[in-house]
Amino acid sequence: MAPDASGALGLGARMRRLRAFWREPHFLAKTRVIAIVLWVGALLVFQPRTALDMLAVFTLFAVIAVLPVMPRVVVPIGLMIALIVGFVPGDAVELATVITLYALFLTAGFACDGRLCALMVALYAMAEITCAVVWGSSSAALEVINGLVDAWSNMFADNMIVGGGADIPDLMAWAFAVAMSMLLSGFAAVFGHSFRISAVAGERLARSEAMVDRMAREQRLAHMIHDSVANDMSVIAMLTWRAKAGLDGDSGSSESSGASGAASVDLAASLDAIYDRSHHALDRVHEVIDVLDGKRTLAELEDDDDADDAEAGEGSGSGANAGSDAGAGADLIVQLERCVEDQDRIMAMIGMRGVSRVVAEGVDPCNPPKRVRRAVIGLVEEIYANIVRHAAWANGSEDAGDAEAYILFVTVGPKRIRIAEVNAIGGGESAAIRGTKHGNGLAQQRETVESLGGTLNASAQDGTWTIAAEIPVA
């Protein structure tokens, strides 16, 4: 059983390689294969009768064999060899010459400049017919002309027309034969040139597709860096600033053990959050570097992110109905609830409290595909990052208080997902991140949402920032 299985496997692999070979744009190699097959068939039908015939036939085979290696050099040399071999009589030699000529002109049309190819077609036609008329070498074009003349003469003779069967002047026969030779070889050259145009167009299309894929890949990596690293760094800066402010306040005014214990707890929680965020940002940087270095693909990285989100969503759902779509991962509502819960916890550590709600609209909320899921989570994270950077804090100062700094609602319906957020605009950037550069994260999110057929609108009016987005499921 084992030898048969391995033999079948080997045959299947060879067949797959053969199919792949014909799909690939190796026109010259394919031309050589076809010419060799026809050459072998010609030898099976007409065997060389003399040693000279054998030498001529195998010389033509050598021309075919080296044709794809140096086509621009082999084509003119091969045409001269075909002219010389034309003086060797024999059906095998004549048929092998015709096969070689078609391979040569196909190659010339594919590999040579159009003007040079036309010049070679014309010069060979005149040289071939001249050798055939003057010195009696073989010529397929001249034989075709002679066959047409004989058929024409027989038709006149059968109909008893006076003057039937009259000889054609030599110059006229030469001109007609040259035209016929140019027609036959020119057809092969034009056929080869059409493949050349198709190959060039295919290469340009492949380069364009590769460039578009590279740009899309770089854009997605830039989104990952911004959505993860930039947002994490903003939160880390705010947490660090807040922890330092707490330490300063504790050392200056807190004397009771209760107050001191509360400050220690807050500081420990802030340091834990700083560690988690910095570790997450560092992991993301290493993952993106691995993609840029070619150690892993972007699709693998995105699949890992989806798997992490699914595990986290199922773990935090406490029995909630996770999505049954294996390609989409955990239920989107569970993921969003976990996301806003984590973000609200970090915002509270910073000293900024707000209201966040995830609402299921209808009895059968949607379970969207991966790309929609990523867009929704990414937009929510970007909204929180903008709140950190630009929202006004409670009572117009950077003190937590009891006021709500932001309101965020995410509504998951059967056909679309709606996101709405409102916050008061501060007098500038937060003190913790003032002076740092910011990217165009919201513009990138708008491009992503619009690419999915959705809309994203943001506006600032009367000191209030409002953002509203609607993303269709399919």
UniProtKB/TrEMBL annotation:
<keyword id="KW-0472">Membrane</keyword>
<feature type="transmembrane region" description="Helical">
    <location>
        <begin position="27"/>
        <end position="46"/>
    </location>
</feature>
<feature type="transmembrane region" description="Helical">
    <location>
        <begin position="116"/>
        <end position="136"/>
    </location>
</feature>
<feature type="transmembrane region" description="Helical">
    <location>
        <begin position="171"/>
        <end position="191"/>
    </location>
</feature>
<feature type="region of interest" description="Disordered">
    <location>
        <begin position="301"/>
        <end position="324"/>
    </location>
</feature>
<keyword id="KW-1133">Transmembrane helix</keyword>
<feature type="compositionally biased region" description="Acidic residues">
    <location>
        <begin position="301"/>
        <end position="312"/>
    </location>
</feature>
<protein>
    <recommendedName>
        <fullName>Histidine kinase</fullName>
    </recommendedName>
</protein>
<keyword id="KW-0812">Transmembrane</keyword>
<dbReference type="InterPro" id="IPR036890">
    <property type="entry name" value="HATPase_C_sf"/>
</dbReference>
<feature type="transmembrane region" description="Helical">
    <location>
        <begin position="53"/>
        <end position="71"/>
    </location>
</feature>
<feature type="transmembrane region" description="Helical">
    <location>
        <begin position="77"/>
        <end position="104"/>
    </location>
</feature>
